[in-house]
């Protein structure tokens, strides 16, 4: 499981070189009972080279944590704030003043999503949706930020009627008084149409009319491809068909030059007994194939070669979401940063996620001083908040019972908890990175994808040495102030060194 993100590394380094190139981003929901701290979230994003994200609000701590990372951020006006902003230019200006101006340019905010699926989720607010977008844009113009921050609003694909064949698609006519000025706004501001595309739901609701392979981007025989009899375009997957249906629906209203960005797409990895197709394998297949499809820049049958950048839904499983089990299981990661499954990207016959050459682990140096290892070990299992229970007598990682082995387990646990970030395998020089899996017997190290090392929801950074070591047996069996012990050990070592070499070290 542990290498979901050799694949994610390749998937997400894609698109800072040219604005025209398609990119894959990730949505970040927060309905978790154990939501990681913003610094942990950003550490994960940086370690996995995720360069594009979408937030469902404008959380101050998150925006501060994203500063100076270069990560491109879409922030959102929540639906509950939409009425106020859509009815008052001053309220919109105040929103921009509070949620944009304090953070740019350090935080790379590139777009504002005004509401989410407003036409279908909050139809009473539909009449003021375009006003809200205009007011937000006017505030950006006043701050000279309109050229760098686009304004749009995500739509459910259900606003499109008669979506297959795509050439016959059109928007629900009852929304024309909103959709026409909305598309004029997007066109005049060089923005893009935000669309949420969920082939999982299309498949589930089709009562067998849509084949699972067609929903999952699996290869189809030519005779199994869907053909638009009006255009003779062939469709090999639901995703392209829905995107093209949106293009045709816009064309039906005489808008032919508004690009589409897919703001949500994914597949659940777990479901209730009534959701048999919400599985790890299907989620892995869909997201892996989606990533390859987007980054290949193949576009769609209607617009070949035109990038359709897409944000995967979503970074974390959200256990607090209501509804069936599938609603809680769209994430790529658990809250502790462990991949839910290993994405695989096939290219030239190679399954990249099975190539573990770049998998790294953090272990104790064989030449390290035992007292320094013990100090790092004590810190890791205390202030470092590593779960060292696997090191207790009788537990899988107790043997061999020595400080080197215990420290290696804890160093690796901390290193992977911090998403293998820079400086998180140091521990005052007693740790080193290796590509050799240190797991042994039933002792599975966290970097191997095992879940024996679990973490709390706070990130405790090591003071000056980023250390995480597993606790010794004496540490585990006695309740005491671990950090005080660390300070005492360092003090003793300092004194000893001074006495041994006063001229060279202490003068």
TrEMBL record:
GO BP terms: carbohydrate metabolic process; defense response
Taking the first listed entry, what is the main subcellular location of this protein, grouped into a coarse class? membrane
Q: Which domain of life is it from?
A: Eukaryota
CC per GO annotation? plasma membrane; plasmodesma; side of membrane
InterPro entries, sorted: GH, Glyco_hydro_17, Glyco_hydro_17_plant, X8
Q: Where is the signal peptide?
A: 1-15
Q: Which UniProt keywords apply?
A: Cell membrane, Disulfide bond, Glycoprotein, Glycosidase, GPI-anchor, Hydrolase, Lipoprotein, Membrane, Plant defense, Signal
- Say yes or no: keyword Membrane present: yes
Q: Taking every annotated instance into account, which residue ranges of this chain make up the domain X8?
A: 360-445
For the keyword Signal, the answer is yes
For this protein, the Enzyme Commission number is 3.2.1.39
**Record membrane topology:** Lipid-anchor; GPI-anchor
One GO molecular function term? glucan endo-1,3-beta-D-glucosidase activity
**What Pfam families does the record tag this protein with?**
Glyco_hydro_17, X8
Q: Per the record, what are the reactions this protein catalyses?
A: Hydrolysis of (1->3)-beta-D-glucosidic linkages in (1->3)-beta-D-glucans
Name the PANTHER family for this protein.
GLUCAN ENDO-1,3-BETA-GLUCOSIDASE BG1-RELATED-RELATED
Q: What is this protein called?
A: glucan endo-1,3-beta-D-glucosidase
């Amino acid at each position: 499981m542990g290498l979901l993100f050799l694949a994610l590394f390749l998937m997400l380094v894609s698109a800072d070189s040219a604005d025209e190139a398609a990119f894959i981003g990730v949505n970040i929901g927060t309905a978790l009972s154990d939501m990681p701290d913003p610094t942990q979230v950003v550490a994960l994003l940086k370690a996995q080279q995720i360069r594009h994200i979408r937030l469902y609000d404008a959380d101050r701590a998150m925006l501060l944590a994203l500063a100076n990372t270069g990560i491109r951020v879409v922030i959102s006006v929540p639906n509950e704030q939409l009425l106020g902003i859509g009815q008052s230019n001053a309220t919109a200006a105040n929103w921009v003043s509070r949620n944009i101006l304090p953070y740019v340019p350090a935080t790379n905010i590139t777009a504002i999503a005004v509401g989410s699926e407003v036409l279908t989720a909050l139809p009473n607010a539909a009449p003021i949706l375009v006003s809200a977008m205009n007011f937000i844009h006017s505030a950006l113009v006043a701050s000279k930020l309109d050229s760098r921050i686009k304004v749009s609003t995500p739509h459910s694909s259900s606003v499109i009627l008669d979506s297959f064949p795509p050439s016959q698609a059109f928007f629900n006519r009852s929304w024309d008084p909103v959709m026409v000025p909305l598309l004029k706004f997007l066109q005049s501001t060089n923005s893009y149409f935000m669309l949420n595309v969920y082939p999982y739901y299309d498949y589930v609701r089709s009562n067998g009319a849509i084949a699972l392979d067609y929903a999952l981007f699996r290869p189809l025989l030519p005779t199994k491809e869907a053909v638009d009899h009006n255009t003779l375009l062939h469709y090999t997957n639901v995703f392209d068909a829905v995107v093209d249906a949106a293009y045709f629906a816009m064309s039906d209203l005489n808008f032919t030059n508004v690009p589409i960005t897919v703001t949500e797409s994914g597949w659940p990895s777990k479901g209730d007994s009534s959701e048999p197709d919400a599985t790890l394998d299907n989620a892995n297949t869909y997201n892996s194939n989606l990533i390859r499809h987007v980054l290949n820049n193949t576009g769609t049958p209607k617009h070949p070669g035109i990038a359709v950048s897409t944000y995967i839904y979503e970074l974390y499983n959200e256990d607090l979401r209501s509804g069936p089990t599938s609603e809680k299981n769209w994430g790529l990661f658990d809250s502790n940063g462990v991949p839910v499954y290993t994405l695989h990207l096939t290219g030239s016959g190679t399954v990249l996620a099975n190539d573990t050459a770049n998998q790294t682990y953090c272990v104790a140096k064989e030449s390290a001083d035992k007292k320094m290892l013990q100090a790092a070990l004590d810190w890791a299992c205390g202030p470092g908040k590593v779960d060292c229970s696997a090191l207790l007598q009788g537990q899988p990682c107790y043997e061999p019972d020595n400080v080197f082995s215990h420290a290696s387990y804890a160093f690796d646990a901390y290193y992977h908890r911090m998403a293998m970030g820079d400086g998180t395998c140091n521990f005052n020089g007693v740790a080193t990175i290796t590509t050799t899996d240190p797991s042994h017997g039933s002792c599975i190290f966290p970097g191997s994808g095992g879940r024996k090392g679990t973490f709390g929801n706070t990130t405790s950074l090591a003071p000056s040495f980023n250390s995480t070591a597993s606790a010794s047996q004496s540490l585990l069996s006695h309740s005491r102030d671990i950090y005080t012990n660390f300070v005492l050990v360092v003090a003793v070592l300092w004194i000893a060194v001074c006495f041994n070499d006063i001229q060279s070290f202490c003068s």
